[in-house]
Amino acid sequence: MPETPEQSATDRFDTVLIANRGEIAARIQRACRELGLKTVAICSEADRQAPYGKTADSFLCIGPSTAAKSYLNQDAILLAARLAGAGAIHPGYGFLSENAAFADAVEKAGLVFIGPTASSIAIMGDKISAKRAMMAAGVPCVPGPDTALPDDPATIERIALEIGYPVIIKAAGGGGGRGMRVVPKADVLHEAIALTREEARKAFGSPSLYMEKFLEHPRHIEIQVICDDHGNAVWLGHRDCSMQRRHQKVVEEAPAAGIAPDIIQPVGLACVQACLQIGYRGVGTFEFLYEDGAFYFIEMNTRLQVEHPVTELTSGVDIVQAQIRAAQGHVLDLTQGDVTCEGHSFECRINAEDPETFLPSAGVVTHLALPAGPGIRVDTHIHAGYKVSPYYDSLIAKLIVHAPTRAEAMARMREALAGTEVGGISTNIPFLRALFEDGAFARGETDIHYLEQWLKLRRAA
Ligand code: ADP
């Protein structure tokens, strides 16, 4: 008798190597264990003390502290997977999570990459081809051509005029908030293009640029999707990630406040349609700018995101488990009709950094108090005595709350922040406490520029 996908799925792998560090390594390990899977943790020399190493079935040091020689070292990770007998690799976020060549190398080594196929990553990793794919699937995009900018200055000027100033120049291979430049008017257009092209060549290895309308007061809204290998896809509601500093998210929430279901519904369905068209597998996020009641696609993240917990708390779906099950070949166990989002959730990113200057702060955590209670979740890998290393991202914990309404969730976050103490290093907790007292934020009257302006006003006061 032929095997059903369900029967063969569990055979795809029983051991997962987690190619990441910090809070997300701990989070993925928990999901694996709950699914009855064995885990292999890896570390650099700086992370030998990682607590998730002690609870893993195997723990291997794969290289020196610098990420390029450890968490980004593809050969070392593949060797560790072979030595430890892993059948799959979970890349987490950052590092190699959106590296199509790595996804390909993992599959060529006979292992399962817990994520989409290398070709989906490649299409979505290039912002121009992503925009083209989205337009073809009927997803609304920011006004501007879905082709790379040519070299001819006159043609570039004509494109900018057609879009209308201000425009934004973006690197096709850009990421992490880099490789973008706003052009307010025509006289600085060519200079902006030359600078961004050079930056793109150096940082992303490709000089390819594109141009689109610069939206002046948008909110950043995103849609979470989950797809299996059998032609099923659902969206799990939306998030607002407008609270950004230097294009980096600081506070996220689900759902995005004040967006009527009949406005977001067609966008969610278009995202699902796009996934089906490109044969997408696993979890992903479609990022949009939202201005004057309209949505404009900016990019897709083909991986698990830092802010996935706010969607987990509102949808009740364990996104990491669902992602692993999809990679195992299981049929998605929910349909769109099963997805209901309830209540409101906030996430604060707790960073080891100075709350005024935002400079990273490394050192030993001498004292740690974490909040607990109904509707409070903390995702972290740190403990008292943990040494925060200067080598990596400054995220040390995520504080997540859930409550029936947005106002109640804000109150819960205030309480949770009041109950969080990290001694021995500086953190952004004082800044987050002040932000949750802000009136405009409480009223939901913010856009992507709000946090920077709020910081400027605070500094001036
Ligand atoms: P990255 O891949 O570097 O994160 P994105 O394309 O997701 O880049 O954009 C990051 C942020 O830059 C957005 O959240 C938004 O704040 C700003 N941004 C990007 N495109 C535009 C645009 N067309 N108009 C206004 N702001 C933009």
DSSP strand tally: 20
User: Describe the biggest sheet?
Assistant: 8 strands, antiparallel
- Globular, elongated, flat, extended or rod-shaped: what is the shape? globular
Instruction: Tell me the strand order in the biggest sheet.
Output: 13-12-9-10-11-14-19-17
CATH architecture of the largest domain: 2-Layer Sandwich
What is the name of the CATH superfamily of the largest domain? ATP-grasp fold, B domain
Low-confidence stretches: none
Ligands, ions, cofactors? adenosine-5'-diphosphate
Class per helix and strand makeup: alpha+beta
Distance between the termini: 74 Å
Keywords: ATP-binding, Biotin, Ligase, Nucleotide-binding, Plasmid
Pfam families: Biotin_carb_C, Biotin_carb_N, CPSase_L_D2
Protein name: Acetyl-CoA carboxylase biotin carboxylase subunit
GO molecular function: ATP binding; ligase activity; metal ion binding
Q: How is the topology of this model organized?
A:
Layout: H1 5-9, E1 15-18, H2 22-34, E2 38-44, H3 51-55, E3 58-63, H4 74-84, E4 88-90, H5 100-108, E5 112-113, H6 118-125, H7 127-136, H8 153-163, E6 167-171, E7 180-183, H9 189-204, E8 209-213, E9 219-227, E10 233-245, E11 248-254, H10 261-278, E12 282-291, E13 294-301, H11 308-315, H12 319-328, E14 344-351, E15 363-364, E16 367-369, E17 376-380, E18 387-388, E19 395-403, H13 406-418, E20 421-423, H14 429-435, H15 439-442, H16 450-460
Parallel strand pairs: 1-2, 1-4, 2-3, 4-5
Antiparallel strand pairs: 6-7, 6-8, 9-10, 9-12, 10-11, 11-14, 12-13, 14-19, 15-18, 16-20, 17-19
Helix pairs in contact: 5-6
The chain binds adenosine-5'-diphosphate.
